[in-house]
Amino acid sequence: MQAQRPKRNRAKRLKEPQVKELIDAYTQGASTYQLAERYDIKRQTVSSILKRNGVTPRWRRLAETDMDYAEHLYTYQDMSAARIADRLKVDPETVRLRLRKRGVQMRDPHDRP
């Protein structure tokens, strides 16, 4: 008796009109996470579709010099991660995660002087 093989997942392919809708929605402000949920595909697939169609991502990666600056503002200027993120034009969670990765002791957001 032969063992049953698990079914392989097949990648979902969007039709051309759906790709156009996805690109339009992204350029109008929808996030890759929202689009992934809407079209029942992975976030990485959304990013690949956008890249393949020449759409520039809205986000930008934080360079080490940006993180040096963010760490200085957080540690010595007592600036919140949210305000730093606003200044650097990135998501606040990105700043928090990158600061924690650098070993910066995070303050309790409710414990203000």
Architecture overview:
The chain is mainly α and 113 residues long. 54% of the residues lie in helices and 0% in strands. The protein is elongated. The model has no long low-confidence stretch (mean pLDDT 88).
Percent of residues in helices comes to 40-55%
Query: Roughly how many Å is the radius of gyration?
Result: 20 Å
Order of helices and strands: HHHHHH
> What is the strand content?
under 5%
Q: Based on the structure, what is the oligomeric state of the protein chains?
A: single chain
Mean pLDDT: 88
Shape: elongated
Q: Based on helices, strands and strand pairing, what is the structural class?
A: mainly alpha
Number of helices: 6
Number of strands: 0
* Low-pLDDT segments: none
Brief characterization of the structure:
The protein contains six helices and no strands.
From the structure above, extract its key features.
113 residues, mainly alpha, 54% helix, 0% strand, elongated
List the helices and strands and how they pair.
Blueprint: H1 16-27, H2 32-39, H3 43-52, H4 64-76, H5 81-88, H6 92-101
